[in-house]
């Protein structure tokens, strides 16, 4: 009984609902009144770094190869990168409208639940739990491990799969620990690693400008020569580009923890998408000043090939920065997705245990542990390429449904307040 009592003083659970608002029985935690709520500790700057940190992962360091292979020219590939950024901005603004209409955590799950009812909400939830988010975190953590091992084993063509998986698991567990300890810890971690990944890209961009200043502009003399405008090829190129932009909707998962979501959500999403689009475009221009099209197509990691060519013995800096970038991506995915599980348990569509909060820091520890556990399973059994195939279709189908909900609500809920429209 004593241990049960101590356990209940650590955790609290939302147990009842009244109207549209959840209320909480806190019999075991009488010193805290007003219900168990996620801590409102995320301001505008942290909101921007969460989005930028979640989006900029491995994509910009790997995807240029896939886009260039489909377009056959730097000019066409740059157009694809910009178009993907604008497409993401439009989608993000749809999420801003939904998020400010319904300022509750859970993102796609909450919107599907509200629009189509509990059954479809349940289906959407379990797709998120079983496939989408754990697979995304597994991919990013394995990329983290691959890049972190490159400086340690520079002569190896590829790292040991066992070493990659073990290091990826360490990454996931470390992120889980940080998120369990404090929302502030996790947002500060995101701030730091976002700064690191942006610094890596700024370093690439500055190097590109230096190369342009030296007259290294051969690839831009006829940038559209040999371009492939075949619709099928462009579709695949867009698919690769959108993978690099995925994650711009992550802030909607944490909207209840934002200090001023109606003001900050649309600003953060808009600013983040514009920053990312500019950085991605300029980084690709920089790649073109150092590497030729065949060199990019034959590279497993464009950023590392760029660093080896231009930085010489200091090339190892780039894989370390890429590892930092992907660590921030794992942190952003775990931080935001655990809130989906938390919200779903409030709706009785997942075990009630997942709505428990740690009392002093108000972190959803059981939800975080579930997210990390499922991610580690995918790390143990999957390869990066196969996991990406599972993820892509599910991810964009879910986003398409949420955009459809915006249109549906314009007709079925015309009187609903829309701070963003």
TrEMBL record:
GO terms for cellular component: plasma membrane. GO terms for molecular function: L-amino acid transmembrane transporter activity. It comes from Opisthorchis felineus. It comes from the Eukaryota. Its main location: membrane. It is a multi-pass membrane protein. Belongs to the amino acid-polyamine-organocation (APC) superfamily. L-type amino acid transporter (LAT) (TC 2.A.3.8) family. InterPro entries: AA/rel_permease1 (IPR002293), AminoAcid_Transporter (IPR050598). This is Amino acid permease/ SLC12A domain-containing protein. Pfam families: AA_permease_2. It is found in: Cell membrane. The chain crosses the membrane at residues 42-62, 74-96, 125-149, 161-180, 192-212, 232-255, 267-294, 314-342, 362-381, 393-412. Keywords: Cell membrane, Membrane, Transmembrane, Transmembrane helix, Transport.
């Amino acid at each position: 009984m004593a241990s049960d009592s101590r356990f209940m003083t650590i955790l609290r659970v939302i147990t009842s609902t009244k109207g549209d608002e959840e209320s909480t029985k806190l019999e075991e935690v009488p010193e805290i009144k007003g219900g168990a709520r996620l801590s409102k500790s995320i301001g505008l700057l942290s909101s921007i770094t969460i989005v930028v940190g979640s989006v900029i992962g491995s994509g910009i360091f790997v995807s240029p190869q896939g886009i260039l292979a489909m377009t056959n020219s730097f000019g066409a590939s740059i157009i694809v990168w910009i178009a993907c950024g604008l497409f993401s901005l439009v989608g993000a603004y749809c999420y801003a409208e939904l998020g400010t209409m319904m300022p509750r955590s859970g993102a796609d799950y909450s919107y599907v639940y509200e629009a189509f009812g509990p059954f479809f909400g349940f289906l959407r939830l379990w797709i998120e739990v079983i496939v989408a988010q754990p697979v995304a975190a597994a991919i990013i953590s394995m990329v983290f491990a691959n890049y972190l091992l490159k400086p340690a084993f520079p002569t190896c063509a590829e790292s040991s799969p066992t070493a990659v998986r073990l290091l990826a698991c360490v990454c996931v567990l470390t992120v889980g620990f940080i998120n369990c300890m404090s929302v502030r810890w996790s947002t500060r971690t995101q701030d730091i690693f976002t700064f690191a990944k942006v610094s890596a890209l700024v370093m690439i961009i500055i190097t590109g400008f230096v190369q342009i200043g030296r007259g290294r502009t051969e690839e831009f003399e006829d940038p559209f020569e040999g371009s492939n405008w075949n619709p099928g090829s462009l579709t695949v190129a867009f698919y690769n580009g959108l993978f690099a932009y995925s994650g711009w909707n992550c802030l909607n998962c944490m909207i209840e923890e934002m200090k001023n979501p109606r003001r900050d959500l649309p600003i953060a999403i808009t600013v983040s998408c514009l920053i990312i689009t500019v950085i991605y475009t300029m980084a690709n221009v920089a790649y073109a000043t150092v590497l030729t099209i065949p060199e990019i197509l034959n590279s497993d990691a464009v950023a590392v090939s760029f660093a080896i060519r231009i930085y010489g013995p200091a090339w190892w800096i780039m894989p370390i920065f890429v590892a930092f970038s992907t660590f921030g991506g794992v942190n952003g995915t775990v931080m935001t997705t655990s809130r989906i599980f938390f919200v779903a348990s409030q709706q009785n569509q997942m075990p009630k245990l997942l709505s428990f909060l740690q009392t002093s820091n108000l972190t959803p520890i059981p939800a975080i542990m579930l997210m990390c556990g499922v991610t580690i399973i995918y790390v143990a059994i999957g390869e990066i390429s196969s996991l990406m195939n599972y993820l892509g279709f599910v991810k964009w189908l879910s986003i398409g449904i949420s955009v459809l909900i915006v249109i549906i609500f314009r007709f079925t809920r015309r009187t609903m307040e829309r701070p963003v429209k």
